[in-house]
Specification:
Length: 508
């Protein structure tokens, strides 16, 4: 009975991991990098100095918005936290049909950033659950299906491997299929609690999309649901009487005291410059496990606190905490590195599982040198994704340093570079023999990652100088991570080259 259960779970584990494994690999890799999305963005905008205080940054943003969007219906201000450097501002124009701009990036003093425009680490964060070039809803449905497959694969893998913890201590090199199985077991078990947590909480974060029936049964519309789930407090309609907005920096200082010095996440100003203006200040997701944060309401004209925001229920707080644990924004630096390393193990777990599928089945083929079309597709998709996407990621960083700083469409061109390079790598994987394609793409990936610090040195100057100027070690640490990644890719290229040589000898 037990053997029958394990055998059936083995089949479930194999196919649930394979069918969407390539997408899961990209999701894991981008999500892992996104644990340092603020730092990646700062590296990609080396001209921007960090802000001294949130209150100062908000005061500067208020002055800028008053000059450039004084007649807007609402403002949204996201000041830099302890890890960020810029203030993001958005506004809703009084005339939506005007077609003007609705956002800007400011420095800590409220000056518009004159630096290389980039989507930075935020793009990689969104890519891991919103994908790209697809409608957001469809992308999230696809990602949710992949996450469900991942959860099934993890649970069925636990049932299948009866010696999973014993095998954890076995890592044998140069043993072919046995080595890939050992690597898969080690990377899976080493961060198993993380893998379960990150997959389940990822599904919880979009539960209303994946399980819409309860929402439809309890609420008349999606707007009514969001108003109840994420209340912002009552606010009066605009009176049509102009009256200056009270200093937002002072409100931030007061809110910070009430929030026990917790970091501010964003401000939402309704009807700025109107007699009925209101301000909602919410704590940052980095301020604790509760990613939705606490909100404090102010009268926009007097600057005095209003009635407290409606309390949230236990279920809402539980959902908010699970989303916070998934995103890891609350984590201090050592814990964030632990998140990062666990994500690396998750990425390796998916990659080794995909390679293991081909390694196991090649031995069962009637003619391993002439496999059937399905096997060839899987084998080449492995190369295109596992080797090709890291190369695309390196090209994204290189594009940031090589594209003209003044180009108006720089963010789109950086993103396009990533997908173009990935497409070229995929094409190369399809036309070359797999072992040679592994070697070629891994070698180019090593060169690309090694080139990132060199190109950065030529384009913007030494990392140590940037670190001294901005009082931050982000720049040299980023270069070090690039070099370590290049070394790992070089080892992979050498291993693939030896495997290709061995394959040719066996064929002869």
């Amino acid at each position: 009975m037990k053997n029958g259960l394990r055998q059936s779970m083995s089949t479930v584990h194999t196919w649930s991991g394979l069918l969407l494994g390539w997408l899961l690999y990209v999701m894991f890799l981008c999500g892992t990098v996104a644990y340092f999305q603020e730092e990646v963005t700062r590296w990609m905008q080396p001209e921007v100095a960090p802000a001294h205080s949130q209150a100062e940054a908000v005061a500067g943003a208020q002055a800028w918005l008053t000059r450039h969007a004084g007649d807007a219906l609402s403002w949204y201000i996201a000041p830099p936290g302890r890890r960020g450097a810029v203030t993001q501002v958005y506004w809703q124009p009084a005339d939506p049909a005007s077609g003007g701009r609705t956002s800007a990036t400011l420095d800590g003093q409220g000056r518009e950033v004159v630096a290389r425009a980039t989507s930075g680490g935020y793009f990689l964060y969104r890519l891991h659950f919103d994908l790209h070039y697809l409608p957001v809803i469809w992308a999230r449905i696809i990602v949710g299906i992949a996450a469900m497959f991942m959860l099934v694969a993890i649970l069925s893998g636990i049932i299948t491997h009866k010696k999973i913890f014993a095998d954890f201590f076995m890592l044998r090199f140069g043993k072919g299929q046995r080595s890939w199985l050992d690597a898969h077991n080690v990377t899976a078990v080493l961060a198993l609690p993380f893998h379960l947590m990150i997959t389940y909480t990822g599904l919880v974060s979009l539960a209303s999309l994946y399980a819409p029936a309860p929402v439809a049964a309890a609420f008349t519309s999606g707007g009514a649901y969001y108003a109840a789930a994420f209340p912002t407090g009552a606010s009066a309609a605009a009176a049509g009487v102009r009256q200056p907005l009270a200093p937002l920096g002072t409100m931030v200082l007061r809110a910070t005291q009430v929030f026990d010095a917790r970091e501010i996440g964003y401000l939402w100003v309704q009807s700025p410059g109107d007699r009925n203006a209101s301000v909602a200040i919410t704590t940052s997701p980095a301020a604790g496990f509760d990613t939705r944060g606490d909100t404090m309401l102010f009268d926009g004209v007097t600057g005095q606190p209003r009635e407290p925001s409606p309390p949230r229920g236990t279920a809402q707080r539980a959902e908010s905490v699970m989303v916070g644990i998934h995103a890891g924004r609350y984590a201090n630096l050592p814990l964030r590195w632990l998140y990062f390393l666990s994500g690396v193990f998750g990425t390796a777990m998916v990659a080794t599982g995909l390679v293991l599928w081909t390694a196991k089945r090649r031995q069962r083929l009637p003619d391993p040198e002439r496999p059937h079309i399905g096997f060839r597709i899987v084998e080449r998709m492995n190369v295109a994704t596992i080797a090709g996407f890291p190369l695309a990621l390196a090209s994204y960083f290189l594009a940031n340093r090589l594209l003209p700083v003044a180009a108006s469409d720089r963010p789109d061109r950086e993103i396009a570079t990533l997908f173009i390079v990935w497409g070229i790598a995929a094409l190369w994987a399809m036309i070359r023999r797999p072992q040679r394609a592994w070697r070629d793409i891994a070698a180019i990936t090593a060169l690309a990652f090694a080139a990132v610090p060199v190109v950065s040195l030529i384009a913007v100057g030494p990392s140590l100088s940037l670190a001294a100027r901005h009082d931050s070690l982000i720049y040299p640490v980023f270069d070090l991570v690039m070099l370590v990644t290049a070394a790992l890719a070089a080892v992979a290229a050498r291993y693939a080259g030896l495997a290709a040589t061995r394959t040719r000898r066996v064929a002869r």
